[in-house]
Design brief:
Strand 12 (572-576) and strand 13 form a beta hairpin. The protein has 22 helices and 17 strands. It has helices spanning 5-10, 12-30, 37-63, 69-88, 90-94, 110-139, 147-167, 173-192, 202-225, 231-239, 241-292, 298-312, 338-351, 366-372, 408-454, 503-523, 527-541, 595-600, 620-623, 635-644, 650-664, 687-690, and strands at 317-324, 327-334, 361-364, 380-388, 391-400, 461-462, 465-472, 480-488, 491-499, 548-556, 561-567, 572-576, 579-583, 604-608, 614-618, 674-681, 694-696. Helix content is 56%, strand content 16%.
């Protein structure tokens, strides 16, 4: 939290300080200095109250700010330097107003009195700031409550200051001397309790070492400058003997604290580097542990891994050897060129079995440099495994330019970090897989929507013809397609098709096939001719691995005939007279061959329809549905179900077939779309009576 300066000056304690300081100032201006006991008591009481409120407001200030030890020490040093300047030039300054600054002048004049009071308040302000700052440093980073130690020292400070003037000329002066000695002793005891220094880096400790020397010297000079013969001391003593002792003790406390701080810092220097390293390890691992749960690009994560490895392992360079498409490549090179890392990779992969490494292993490049005849930049290597899905997917390399060996601490640090890195990399890999899966799901959703829009929203209705259609998409989008076309008032065209392949590409081909058949059905009536033209178009647009199987039919309500042509699709079933007939006219799938060859191998058949004839068109999602033993539903079982329900309505037959397929494959997931179209011819239509039996036009889609 940053210091809120407005809050400092608006605080209740600071307002009380201003009031008490104003009262003290008026008291000093209105009443002459006197040795009378009542004057001394009132004067010291006002001084104590003023210092107390100033002390409390300073405590509030420090409690409401984020403390950086070195910054606070720098502030103490600046204030100490300012006090030194005030003391050093006090004689010259006060000579302008006093013949002798410390003489008690009967009528010194208002201006001189005001200036001397301001000077004393300024010194007091600085002394209180230093005292509270030292108090804050005392409690900083302490794990235990040590307030009793500091408060005890503060109590003896007060006792020593209050009793100084009243006991110095009596036989009881030893009491004041005792309070002073105990205060100094407590200074040393409290100054030893420095916890925050352990959390500084080596560089900060070196800087603190020089700062503590300079500030120690300043405090010693300032403490001597407030001695009994000094001008500042005379002014303070004249203002209040209690205040003079308090300021002197504060300056002595500063000298003691920074003297002890110098030796404490000096003793911490030998272990500073080790502490810095441990702190770096902890902070790096804490930072990296947060990255594990974050959404990170794999390359960005790899770069972070090598950056931290350089710091943790005291290394000069780092990179990752990653297995990709059966080959090993260098990733996230830190302070090393790609060519050099590839050369070192050969050494590593030649001497380490990547499938068996379980912990950090050390290598010396010098042992192999002669064999490679290369001048490589690194001398020592630390190689640690990176695992994903319980398998070693790569190696984390840390390298040193010097011939200094990696120690056990380096090994432990790199081992620990490589474990974290492995988890992060595995999370990143899983994340990439999840993103890819989500992308595929979205692609499938688009394909399903395309497929839904391609298929007819409802079946056409005729008085003499029952039509039932069922489409059940698999988890993956297939290429099944069926449609109906109103050719004329007496003719109905229909088609069923299956596009090879799955996914959104099949859905787009379906959309193309739909457009082709819709266009051709309006200008051509012959099923064979429609398939020929469709093949001619698709041969130019489909690749060599894609084709479309289809059956196109035309029902003539007036002639009571059904014309069929088949392009590589499953047979059409005609259910009549208790025996299923497989109508399988010759024909190749669309898009496979040139037009002439396709035409020469295409056949069209005509069927005279009888009452209750049932025409069944379907895709292999029905016949190839599998049970738990991976057995197919099969054409024979399919035909038996159809024949056993022959006397039912078309919708009832469809429901029965789907029910049987569902029960049959309940232990096995559906892997292909299921499409079923059933047409049941009822009777000859009275054309004149009901406009050829058509109840409702097919909706435009």
């Amino acid at each position: 939290m940053k210091p809120d300066k407005k809050y400092i000056f608006d605080s209740f304690q600071f307002k009380l300080f201003l009031v008490s300081a104003g009262i003290l100032t008026l008291f000093k201006l209105l009443f002459d200095s006197s040795d009378a006991l009542i004057y001394l008591l009132v004067n010291d009481l006002l001084v104590l109250i003023t210092i107390t409120f100033l002390f409390l407001s300073a405590v509030v200030y420090f409690l409401n700010r984020r403390t950086v030890p070195l910054s606070l020490i720098m502030n103490i040093g600046i204030i100490s330097a300012f006090i030194f300047l005030l003391i050093a030039f006090s004689d010259s300054f006060f000579a302008l107003f006093f013949e002798k600054a410390y003489d008690k002048i009967a009528n010194p004049g208002l201006a001189a009195s005001v200036i001397s009071i301001i000077y004393v308040f300024l010194i007091t302000w600085f002394a209180v700031y230093i005292f509270v700052a030292l108090r804050h440093l005392f409690f900083l980073r302490q794990s235990k409550n040590l307030s009793v130690y500091f408060n005890t020292m503060l109590a003896f400070f007060v006792l020593a200051a209050v009793t100084r003037h009243y006991l110095e000329s009596t036989d009881l002066s030893f009491i004041n001397d005792t309070f002073l000695m105990i205060s100094v002793l407590l200074m040393f005891i409290n100054s030893i309790r420095i916890s925050w220094i352990a959390f500084l880096t080596k560089k900060e400790k070196v800087g603190l070492l020089f700062l503590s020397i300079i500030i120690f010297v300043l405090f010693v000079l300032n403490a001597s400058g407030t001695g009994n013969t000094a001008t500042t001391s005379k002014l303070l003593y004249s203002f209040s003997p209690t205040l003079n002792v308090f300021v002197s003790l504060t300056l002595i406390y500063g000298a003691v604290y920074f003297g002890v701080l110098f030796f404490t810092t000096l003793f911490h220097l030998p272990t500073a580097e080790a502490f810095d390293r441990k702190a770096e390890e902890v902070s790096s691992l804490q930072y990296f542990s947060k990255l594990i749960t974050q959404v990170l690009d794999f390359k960005e994560l790899a770069q972070t891994v090598t950056d931290i490895t350089v710091r943790l392992g005291n290394a000069d360079s780092s990179w990752i050897i990653w297995k990709e498409n059966g080959d090993y490549i260098s990733l996230a090179n830190k302070n090393i060129g790609y060519v050099d890392s590839e050369a070192i990779n050969k050494i590593v992969l030649k001497n380490i079995d990547i499938n068996k490494i379980s912990e950090t292993t050390f290598l010396s490049v010098n042992d192999f440099e002669d064999k490679l005849k290369m001048n490589l930049p690194l001398k020592r290597l630390a190689v640690s495994p990176l695992k994903a899905h319980a398998q070693v997917k790569g190696l984390l390399i840390a390298g040193r330019k010097s011939d200094n060996k990696f120690g056990e601490e380096d090994k432990d640090a790199i081992d620990t970090f490589s474990d974290y890195a492995s988890v992060a990399i595995e999370n990143s890999t899983l994340l990439e897989e999840s993103i890819e899966k989500e992308r595929l799901e979205k692609e499938l959703d688009v394909a399903r929507e395309i497929q839904r829009r391609i298929l007819p929203p409802e079946n056409p209705r005729y008085t003499g013809l029952e039509i039932s259609s069922v489409f059940i998409p698999a988890f993956e989008v297939g290429g099944d397609y069926y449609d109906f076309f109103e050719i004329s008032d007496t003719k109905l065209g229909f088609v069923i098709a299956d596009v090879s392949g799955k996914g959104i590409s099949a859905a787009f081909i379906m959309a193309e096939v739909k457009g082709i058949f819709q266009s051709l059905s309006k200008i051509i009536q012959s099923p064979a001719e429609i398939l020929i033209k469709a093949n001619e178009t698709l041969k130019c647009t489909l690749d060599s691995k894609t084709f479309v199987s289809a059956v196109y039919g035309l029902i003539d309500f007036e002639d009571e005939t059904l014309q069929l042509s088949r392009a590589g699709h499953l047979p059409v079933l005609l259910l009549r007279d208790k025996e299923p007939q497989r109508i399988k006219p010759a024909g190749l799938a669309l898009g496979l061959t040139e037009t002439e060859y396709f035409k020469n191998n295409l056949e069209q058949v005509t069927i005279n329809l009888k009452k209750d004839d049932t025409i069944v068109l379907y895709t292999d999602g029905i016949t190839e549905a599998k049970n738990e033993r991976l057995e197919d539903f099969g054409e024979e079982y399919f035909a038996n179900i159809l024949m056993s329900n022959l006397n039912n309505k078309a919708d009832e037959i469809s429901k029965k077939v789907i029910s049987e397929v569902t029960v049959f494959s309940k232990e096995h997931s559906q892997y292909d779309d299921i499409t079923l179209v059933i047409l049941k011819w009822k009777q000859k239509i009275n054309i004149d009576g009901d406009k050829h039996g058509r109840i409702q036009h097919i909706s435009c889609k």
